[in-house]
Amino acid sequence: MATTAAQQALPHENDTTPAEKLSVFERTQDVIRTALARMGYNEAYYELLREPLKLLTVRIPVKMDDGSVKLFTGYRAQHNDAIGPTKGGIRFHPEVTEEEVKALSMWMSIKCGITNLPYGGGKGGIQCDPRTMSQGELERLSRGYVRAVSQIVGPTKDIPAPDVFTNSQIMAWMMDEYSRIREFDAPGFITGKPIVLGGSAGRESSTAQGVIIVMREAAKVLGMQIAGARVIIQGFGNAGSFLAKFLHKAGAKVVGISDAIGALYNPEGLDIPYLYDRRDSFGTVTNLFDNRITNQELLVQDCDILVPAAIENQITETNAHDIKARILVEAANGPTTKRATDILTERGVLIVPDVLASAGGVVVSYFEWVQNNQGYYWTEDEVNTRLNQMLIDSFHNVYDTSRASRVDMRLAAYIVGLRRMAEASRLRGWV
Ligand code: GLU
Fold it and tell me: Is residue 68 in some structural domain?
């Protein structure tokens, strides 16, 4: 795989590549069913919410640099729009499937529900490998996707954003294409744009900011604090490396980090600024050291807070008994299996589930959309103050539900996340 220029131009937002896509979808359906039943909603509600209401599959012809034409398959799923337009990112990845996009649109509904945003969940994806494509090919693909889905998206219908292997440049091309089709400037069609095109201050680091905010609240309820806490972060991509930097600044002792090659652990704390500056565009840095341990060894080292910020299914029934952390903050999507969630909950480990821990991105996307609609822009401080308040409220809403209903934090998150959607669907007469 060559094209390093294209690779470097593509830092990606969520460094996750689901390995067991089918099971992720089924797992999501399972929690939705349980959450609805807990709230007393009958089977008709599950029937409505167990699949997206709309799924569009498109084939996009793209003229490649060598003169050939290649067809790419893309999807856009809209889970439920009873509350308002749907919202969620578009990922570019060779292994994107229909099932995965459907499940991810359902997760977006939960994230928007927990944070009280006026949206339902949506998600898009294109089967492609952006690491092997030129900027010109990527631009033609991005514009072709917007032309193919333009009927079902828009600022008051469905608002896309960045996701795995997509970035602000891709959002800019997509916004421009949509605006040309509609013949007026439509910055509110998509979020995660560059600042000069109506992007919001603070959007780039918002996912990592969100992780820290909920981590701080989780620490508080256990009588701990971030300053002085020993933290292990699995994954040093966009989320993981930003997070390490912020935590280091906040006075935490980051004792472990990892990348795809291996992991580093030092009970005295790692030199995070040094590692941050030396990582490559894929977040690889452990290759510079001889004293590496494996990712699996890292997860069970001594620490107070463990943050999986890499890929799925890392914490399973095999290692859940050996995890030393008191708090598990899921910055990655789906890092903990169902069985491991049960084991950790029984052991008294406080889990901050992925749908809550990674909600900072969509919250600041919402702020971006509000600013676009008003044509009035906020400072980074205003963005961060509002993000802080919304995520603190969201955390406590989920935490209190978990205590009051005696359910684990993941189920509590789904209960909070689905409540408004079920109610809005009923009031509209859909169920
Ligand atoms: N792709 C991000 C997520 O999964 C952001 C979505 C958005 O900003 O709409 O949460």
Answer: yes
- Which H or E run includes 108? helix 98-114
Active site residue 123: yes
Regarding the beta carbon of 365 and ligand 1, being less than 6 Å apart is answered yes
160 lines ligand 1 (CB under 6 A): no
Q: Are residues 293 and 262 in the same domain?
A: yes
Could you tell me which residues come within 8 angstroms of residue 405 by beta carbon, excluding any fewer than 6 positions away? 38, 411, 412, 415
Overall number of domains in the chain: 2
Spacing, Cα 267 to ligand 1 middle (Å): 34
**Residue 229 counted as domain residue:** yes
pLDDT bracket for residue 13 (50, 70, 90):
very low
Contact of 323 with 306, CB cutoff 8 Å: yes
Residue 201 falls inside a structural domain: no
Return the pLDDT at 23.
65
Single pTM value for the model: 0.91
**CATH code of 58's domain:** 3.40.50.10860
Domain boundary among 357, 382, 411: 357
Say yes or no: CB of residue 121 within 6 Å of ligand 1: no
Which tens digit of pLDDT belongs to each residue from 87-145? 999 999 999 999 999 999 999 999 999 999 999 999 999 999 998 999 999 999 999 99
Distance set, CA 30 to CA 414, 416, 418 (Å):
11, 16, 13
| Residue among 362, 364, 390 to mutate when testing ligand 1 (max atoms within 8 A of CB) | 362
**Pocket of ligand 1, candidates 13, 16, 111: which has the most ligand atoms within 8 Å of its Cβ, to mutate?**
13
> Does 362 contact ligand 1 (Cβ within 6 A)?
yes
Q: Is the CB of 304 under 6 A from ligand 1?
A: no
Considering Cα of 150, then 71, then 142, then 78, what sign does the dihedral take? Answer: positive
Q: What domain range includes position 176? A: 54-186
